[in-house]
Amino acid sequence: MSEEKSLNFLEEIIEKDISNGLKTIQTRFPPEPNGYLHIGHAKAITVNFSLADKYGGKTNLRFDDTNPVTEETEYVESIKNDIKWLGYNWDAEFYASDYFDTLFEYAVKLINKGLAYVDDSTSEEIAELKGTPTTVGTDSPFRNRSVEENLKLFSEMKEGKYKDGEKVLRAKIDMSSPNMLLRDPIIYRIKHAHHHRTGNKWCLYPMYDFAHGQSDSIENITHSICTLEFVPHRPLYDWFIEKLEIFPSHQYEFARLNLTYTVMSKRKLLQLVNEGFVSGWDDPRMPTISAFRRRGYTPESIHMFCEKIGVARRENLIDVGLLEFCAREDLNKKAARTMVVLDPLKLIITNYDKNSSEILKGENDPANPDDTRDVHFSSELFIEREDFMEIPEKKWFRLAPGKMVRLKNAYIVECENFIKDDAGNLTEIHCRYIPESKSGSDVSGINVKGTIHWVSAKHAVDAEVRLYDRLFTEENIAAAEGHFSDYINPSSLIEVNAKIEPALLNAKVGEHFQFLRKGYFCVDKDSTSQKLVFNRTVTLKDTWVKKSK
Ligand code: ATP
Ligand code: MG
Fold it and tell me: Ligand 1: residues whose CB is within 6 Å?
């Protein structure tokens, strides 16, 4: 019997709530549509949807679209697409902007209770009077306006009588609170801007803290799960709900996902896109969900990763190698095997008839020997340049003058000599093959230690292969000095012209393959009927550790 997994801290909270009589669990995933989702969001999505699934509850998708300036419909579509790709179905789709009327009413209610006021101070004056974490703040000269005056001014703000920044609405809480967020936070600001959904209807918009908890409450969210940086916001979250006397949603925080060798805030990712460090949000070097998908990661590999990292309240930095491990684990089961030569060197078989060729069997799936494809063999092949050494080092089991290797799925060959051009570059190597050594019916009695992949030159097709490395050279960018763009890896993308088996010509965009000895690859959307383009998803083994030593 498998050992029962211990509960994570959120499951413990929910089980306690259920034992105290809570009937239904309602969670939500609340992205701001100001960029594409990244792998950190995948963690938040997994946490919210899997908790609801486990306890028979539901999860809403709510777009937190209270900032008209940064939000776009393109982002809304990409977010929905990514969540679906991860395999989750939200119960209802909401927009915080749908609640603008209700939120406005809530603000009026606070004013009526004497708990909010219109402040004419400039943002500099407000900051000045706010105090510091060690000194108390000072009341604004507008703090004691009458309810009537506040109501009048607030409705004039809505009607567009004032310019941006001329007035704000603030909650009246405590200018000496040790929690700076409780020192009369701004809850509405004037912004004459077009909103992606409400158009020009509004010229004042609620601040995050005045929209988020109230939206949770409107949707009867029982467990509002967010990341640790919101811990200081929780007292404010609770204050609004208590004073407004609305559904008591509760906020719970977990540690955000940080990953090595990358940045993970939409603002920084947008900068990478805008400044041309990458080709777009789905450039396969980006940590976005759409980039992982394009690169060849599967939803299952991302789920495995989220499962392994778990959910806790301690901040940490996760090794991107773990994500790569999960991709290998999953692709090993799914990707068909094929032979592709990334850096071709001609190999001529001197004792094989130039005008002849034969069809051999290549296995697509080592776990299923009956699943095979046709592999063409002829007198001229391509092999990897790195599989030949003119003067072999010790324990070299690949090709060198006088050395033998097995050509995968074919024959044993022995290298006789090699040819160089006038400039001294190796152009081809000559071998003889052992006809009795055919794979599957080898009666040669010869044992060789090395097996290499190859492609028949006359049957091979050209393809572009994109080899990726980390986008950044620094493991922990947040802790490094300077700007993140100082650490861009100049060789994070290498494009090579590879030789592929003709059997690959039917491959579809997104299809996964294991190129023998070279890694997992998938067909990129840039492929055309003239030329296939492949992305290397991940190498077969972790080569990074070796390289960085
Ligand atoms: P970013 O700084 O990348 O824009 P955000 O937190 O502002 O991140 P939102 O769209 O507001 O992005 O986030 C939606 C949800 O995803 C929030 O609940 C947030 O806490 C969660 N989230 C964002 N980044 C991470 C992360 N790195 N790890 C886990 N959850 C995250
Ligand atoms: Mg945000």
Answer: 30-32, 40-41, 43-44, 64, 226-227, 256-257, 264-266
